[in-house]
Amino acid sequence: MPARKRSAPTGSVFLLSVVLTVLAFAVVLLGEVPRSLIVPCIVAAAAAQMLVHLSYFLHLSAAPEQRWNLLAFAFTVLIIAIVLGGSLWIMYHLHEQMMGADPMNLVSGNPHAVGHP
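and the corresponding structure tokens:
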């Protein structure tokens, strides 16, 4: 009988996943955490939950037999980062170009204002 890798029982992993979700909601709803720490707490809980899901539910690991799956996942993360970063960059610059037309800037001679020769 071949030796099997031991892993955490599915019920406890599911419970950990639920606890991380409830933690993120509790940080916001209870109001006990300072406002400046709410977003970092939610991001930390989300990152921990992603790691739990990737390792226990999707069985993604650094094992040699998982190399192609890990590479495909890394490529997916790269593409999502490029699309998201590019979209935010484009929206920021569109906002600057469209909303930067302040009437006071037209008079002041700001070279970045819309309508400047």
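(Above: one complete record from the training split.) DSSP finds four helices and no strands in the chain.
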